[in-house]
From TrEMBL:
<dbReference type="GO" id="GO:0004814">
    <property type="term" value="F:arginine-tRNA ligase activity"/>
</dbReference>
<keyword id="KW-0436">Ligase</keyword>
<keyword id="KW-0067">ATP-binding</keyword>
<protein>
    <recommendedName>
        <fullName>arginine--tRNA ligase</fullName>
        <ecNumber>6.1.1.19</ecNumber>
    </recommendedName>
</protein>
<dbReference type="GO" id="GO:0005737">
    <property type="term" value="C:cytoplasm"/>
</dbReference>
<keyword id="KW-0547">Nucleotide-binding</keyword>
<dbReference type="InterPro" id="IPR008909">
    <property type="entry name" value="DALR_anticod-bd"/>
</dbReference>
<dbReference type="GO" id="GO:0005524">
    <property type="term" value="F:ATP binding"/>
</dbReference>
<keyword id="KW-0648">Protein biosynthesis</keyword>
<comment type="similarity">
    <text>Belongs to the class-I aminoacyl-tRNA synthetase family.</text>
</comment>
<dbReference type="InterPro" id="IPR009080">
    <property type="entry name" value="tRNAsynth_Ia_anticodon-bd"/>
</dbReference>
<feature type="domain" description="DALR anticodon binding">
    <location>
        <begin position="306"/>
        <end position="437"/>
    </location>
</feature>
<dbReference type="Pfam" id="PF05746">
    <property type="entry name" value="DALR_1"/>
</dbReference>
<dbReference type="InterPro" id="IPR014729">
    <property type="entry name" value="Rossmann-like_a/b/a_fold"/>
</dbReference>
<dbReference type="GO" id="GO:0006420">
    <property type="term" value="P:arginyl-tRNA aminoacylation"/>
</dbReference>
<dbReference type="InterPro" id="IPR001278">
    <property type="entry name" value="Arg-tRNA-ligase"/>
</dbReference>
<keyword id="KW-0963">Cytoplasm</keyword>
Length: 437
């Protein structure tokens, strides 16, 4: 979603920078390090038994353990956690980022910047951002009321440094520094967004999982506070994807470490199928990804139907070159074709649809909704296929008219426009248009 949105904004004239925020600080990274250390011992012959509760059980850490053993031998095996935690954490984080970068590359997802949360801690940028809030009188020491339900990690029944987020419409004030002097997760988020402002960005778009919905208002509040309302934040929440095979849910277990990775999906159905299908729903709507449906060759499979339209146009153009070798099929020549021949309702409907493309793509960008492009392409492909089918029964509606080069030129101009719009839309979605199927 984020990659397609960035491409959509870039296509419509925005100056876009794509960043990946690396959560390489905090408790979850320590859990990763402990899990990797367990696999390190396993690689050196230790019987680790069942993975303890609270650690990551996935087999993806087995190669990390082997790499640790190859690099360090048994150097850390009998050391205390205090001694091995930092080097193992660094090694495991780098290994995970190598895997993530490889998966992103598999999906052709591009980033201009990979931004480390840890650098905010090490550089003192968290303190700088909080000093800015302090200067505005927006920090104070206080004790928060206990929250209802599950208590968040940053809550404690002790005095903490709090940000006055209620001044900006939040439900409660938010902790930025715990009673022991350590920073909360929110403090790093404050610093990261402040750093973006300092780099000159005035419009920020964050893409989060839907489970972080309760976090939106506090980040919006602090950006409004730090920028005096001059910087905008648009948080886009992405819902879960359910994997199916012939309508049956694919079983996965976080506890046992049994799951299907994105790379597994790409290897099975291809990058372009994954990207297009993922973008057929609005980001905050759940999606059923059925392996059987996304690979079938039918109208019910949108990625096939759109690609088939693009490939069909190329097939017609190849046949036209053979039928009329002397016909100039350059864009300049086709643009001069006589368009008055188009009188059939299917032709006119297709033309009207294409005329809407500039307005449609602009509205999709303003709404921050790249799924609209996928819908548009499907509708355009449907109208093209309908016209194709009409030509099977009505010779005068065929794209190549024997002994009538001018009608052929006009029809080739029409379908070339279809091809160009489909190619542009697919490129926005990060899908490579095919010329043969």
């Amino acid at each position: 979603f984020g990659d397609a949105l960035a491409s959509l904004l870039d296509y419509t004239g925005y100056d876009v920078a794509r960043e990946y925020y690396i959560n390489d600080a905090g408790g979850q990274i320590d859990v990763l390090a402990r899990s990797a250390y367990l696999r390190y011992g396993q690689a050196l012959g230790q019987d680790i038994g069942e993975i303890p509760e609270g650690l990551y059980p996935g087999d993806y850490l087995i190669p990390v353990g082997k790499d640790l053993a190859e690099k360090y031998g048994d150097k850390w095996l009998d050391k205390t956690e205090t001694e091995w935690l930092f080097p193992i954490r660094k090694f495991a984080t780098d290994a995970m980022m190598d895997m993530i970068r490889a998966d992103l590359e598999t999906l052709a997802i591009k980033h201009d910047v990979f931004f480390s949360e840890l650098t905010l801690h090490d550089s003192g940028k968290i303190q700088v951002a909080l000093d800015k809030l302090e200067a505005k009188g927006l920090l104070y020491t206080g004790v928060l009321e206990p929250p209802k339900g599950t208590k968040p990690d940053d809550w404690e029944m002790r005095p903490q440094t709090l940000f006055k987020s209620t001044d900006f419409g939040d439900d409660v004030d938010r902790a930025v520094q715990k009673s022991d002097g350590s920073w909360t997760y929110f403090a790093a988020d404050v610093a990261y967004h402040y750093d973006k402002m300092e780099r000159g960005f005035t419009s920020l778009i964050d893409v989060w999982g839907a489970d972080h919905g309760g976090y939106v208002k506090r980040v919006e509040s602090v950006i409004e506070a730090l920028s005096d309302g001059k910087v905008s934040l648009d948080v886009r929440l992405c819902q879960m994807v359910k994997l199916l095979r012939d309508g049956t849910p694919v079983k996965m277990s976080k506890r046992s470490g049994s799951f299907i990775t994105m790379r597994d999906i790409v290897d099975e159905v291809g990058k372009d199928v994954v990207r297009f299908i993922m973008l057929t729903r609005k980001n905050d709507a759940s999606l059923d990804f059925d392996f059987a449906r996304v690979t079938e060759q039918s109208k019910d499979n949108p990625v096939f139907y759109v690609q088939y339209a693009h490939a069909r146009v190329h097939s017609v153009l190849r046949k036209a070159r053979a039928a009329y070798p002397a016909l100039d099929m350059s864009k300049t020549s086709l643009a001069g074709a006589d368009m008055s021949i188009f009188t059939d309702s299917s032709e006119l409907s297709l033309i009207r649809n294409m005329m809407n493309w500039p307005r449609f793509v602009k509205s999709a960008a303003l709404a921050r909704e790249p799924h609209r492009i996928a819908y548009y392409l499907y509708e355009l492909a449907s109208e093209f296929h309908a016209l194709w089918n009409k030509g099977n029964d009505n010779l005068d509606l065929r794209f190549i008219i024997e002994d009538d080069i001018e009608k052929t030129r006009a029809r080739l101009a029409l379908i070339s426009a279809v091809r160009d719009i489909i190619a542009s839309g697919l490129n926005i979605l990060g899908v490579e248009p095919v010329t043969e199927m």
